[in-house]
Specification:
Elements (H helix, E strand, L loop, with lengths): L5 E3 L8 H13 L1 H12 L6 H5 L1 H4 L7 H13 L9 E4 L2 H13 L5 E4 L3 H32 L12 E9 L13 H4 L2 H4 L2 E7 L4 H12 L8 H4 L2 H8 L1 H6 L7 E2 L2 E2 L1 H8 L5 H18 L4 E8 L4 H13 L4 E6 L12 H6 L5 E4 L5 H4 L8 E3 L23 E5 L4 H15 L6 E5 L20 E2 L5 H5 L4 E4 L5 H7 L4 E4 L18 E4 L2 H17 L3 H12 L5 H9 L1
Parallel strand pairs: 1-2, 2-3, 4-5, 4-8, 8-9, 9-10, 10-11, 12-13, 12-15, 13-14, 15-16, 16-17
Antiparallel strand pairs: 6-7
Helix pairs in contact: 1-5, 7-10, 7-15, 12-15, 15-16, 19-22, 21-23
């Protein structure tokens, strides 16, 4: 039997267990160095908004493979001794293929570099990549035209004698007039403050028909909304479309990292379509602010739902140039360990982020400054999590069957791993009742498992998290989700299932680990579940701990905090 190893370095591929641990270790340790690298590269386009909106500067490890590729290169260098002659490295990108061939030749090891996909598949993928920008441009134009047609008789209700506060938000199916992102804010404002505030909705996850109907609904409330698409002109769309050409003209010098020349990777990202949608919408936000500055209005404050994506950077850059007297505030009403959501010093210097960023609890101040130590951070109400202050978990009769809620994330690969582990562990814990709470981005139809024992578990995608938690004894959470934080804050012990360990961002630093833990495999899950069930049923200290965690992570939503958010 051969001892040769196949190391699949394709994006989103499953690594062998040992290499998975190596990858996670380097991913965690490389965060700051990677951000410094991007800052250095980006310094050459301080005055180019197109550069700041390109994939190369976004640091998004989910939409772009740049971070993944750099991690794999460092991993191969650091653990070169683990690779032997005859082993194979699988890759799915031509740029990485060329770099790895140079690497293997320099190391004089007989390692085979293998394409993960056949030639025909690569050709089809290349054609799709070429067509992707056209689809993106057509989609944005269609949305703009649809919104224009739906608001032909619309006129913004603006008083030049009154201060104006504009709030960037998203209109999604089911949440058009009712705001999902600043839930309850409008209702808490006084009439005087309402007269100052206008929401600027960005249509998202909608069909053209839904956009048309949403526009009709929104224009009936000019005292509350400004329709962005009505102000944006066709010339603005044509200018934004030039981003594709302008960014490809950006010159970059040689880039080296950890002994590798990665200039080809940076050039690939500059021309990548992965961030094009966000870039175009960011450029349209930029021109929207220009159009807004030409109206008779006195904008004193601009609040942005801040994820540090292209759409946010265009918004901030627009206010910096066209309405410089307006105070800019970015609101992070969510928790994320993703490096892209945390601003860097170079982004601050370039003016593509807000002057101040508000987080939903004091727990998130320090993490947000990870790459920009002097970032101005404040605390604002946790609008989306108001329910945790109105709800305390009721502890079940120890004689009843424990109920475990498996709260899944929007990442299908993570969901699959979690369900595999829990399904296997459940065979040794038959006294437990399991319920699955799915994420809208990852329905169970998208998760394929060999073991289908989990299909007998109760699944109700329509029930709210509050409803699910009202019957729960214990919560099993995942990476990249606030569900665990919500559970702990209302008194529900939580186990994070993280296959093969090595994770960050599960819980803010400072939250005691009494009520939460990490399970990396079946054995640890089987051990932890009974312990936490016992805690849920008998530990009288839970509610006290929950209250402390809640105050630390989720700022209360009150009249006072809401008004301060608007006016401070």
């Amino acid at each position: 039997m051969s001892d040769y190893v196949y190391i699949d370095l394709s994006w989103h591929a499953q690594l062998p267990s040992k290499w998975e641990l190596f990858y996670r270790e380097i991913s965690l340790n490389l965060r700051k160095d990677f951000c410094s690298l991007i800052d250095d590269v980006s310094s050459s386009w301080d005055d180019s908004l197109d550069g700041w909106l390109a994939s190369a500067s976004m640091r998004d490890q989910y939409s772009s493979r740049l971070f993944h590729d750099i991690v794999t290169l460092v991993m191969l260098k650091n653990y070169n001794h683990e690779i032997k002659d005859g082993d194979s490295i699988v890759i799915d990108d031509p740029t990485m293929f060329a770099i790895l061939n140079i690497y293997t030749n320099n190391n004089q090891k007989k390692i085979q570099i293998i394409w993960s996909t056949p030639l025909m598949t690569r050709m089809i993928k290349s054609i799709r990549t070429l067509l992707s920008p056209l689809r993106t441009h057509f989609r944005i134009f269609s949305e703009w035209l649809t919104a224009k047609l739906g608001s032909l008789d619309y006129t913004p209700n603006l008083d030049p004698n009154k201060d104006l506060i504009v709030i960037d938000t998203f209109a999604i199916p089911g949440f058009v007039l009712e705001d999902r992102y600043y839930s309850g804010l409008w209702e808490l404002l006084s009439q005087q403050d309402k007269n100052k505030v206008r929401f600027i909705p960005q249509f998202s996850e909608m069909t053209l028909n839904q956009i048309y109907k949403a526009t009709i609904d929104i224009k009936q409330h000019p005292e509350r909304f400004i329709l962005k698409d009505q102000l944006i002109k066709l010339t603005d769309l044509l200018w934004a479309a030039g981003h594709w050409y302008r960014r490809n003209k950006i010159n970059i010098s040689r880039v080296d990292f950890s002994g590798f020349e990665i200039t080809p990777l940076i050039r690939r990202e500059l021309s990548s379509a992965s961030a094009l949608n966000g870039a175009l919408r960011g450029l349209l936000n930029y021109r929207f602010v220009k159009r807004l500055s030409l109206l008779e209005c006195n904008v004193v404050k601009a609040i942005d739902w801040f994820e540090n994506q292209g759409i946010d950077r265009g918004w901030s850059a627009g206010f910096r140039l066209f309405l410089p007297k307006a105070t800019t505030l970015g609101y992070q009403g969510f928790s994320s360990s993703a490096i892209s959501t945390k601003p860097t010093t170079a982004e601050q210097r370039a003016g593509v982020i807000p002057q101040t960023i508000a987080v939903m609890g004091s727990a998130f101040i320090k993490p947000l400054r990870e790459f920009c130590p002097d970032l101005n951070v404040t605390v604002a109400p946790a609008f989306r999590f108001k329910w945790v202050w109105d709800f305390i978990a009721s502890h079940k009769n120890p004689n009843t069957k424990p109920i475990v809620i498996i709260a899944l994330t929007g990442e299908v690969t993570i969901c699959r791993k979690v369900l595999e582990l829990v399904s296997e562990a459940s065979k040794e814990m038959t006294e437990i009742e399991y319920k699955i709470k799915t994420h809208p981005r990852a329905p169970l139809s998208s998760i394929f498992l060999k073991d289908d024992s989990w299909k007998k578990w109760a699944i109700n995608a329509s029930r709210s998290l509050k409803e699910e938690f009202s019957v729960a004894t214990l919560v099993i959470g995942t990476e990249f989700s606030t569900v665990g934080m919500e559970a702990v804050s209302i008194g529900l012990p939580t186990i994070f299932v993280v296959p093969q360990g090595g994770v960050s961002g599960l819980m803010p630093e400072g939250v005691p680990d009494t009520m939460w833990s990490i399970a990396t495999d079946v054995d640890s899950l089987v051990q932890l579940v009974p312990e936490f069930v016992e805690m849920s049923n008998h530990d009288s200290n839970i509610l006290k701990l929950a209250g402390e965690a809640r105050s630390y992570m989720f700022e209360p939503v009150t009249n006072q905090t809401a008004i301060k958010f608007i006016t401070a």
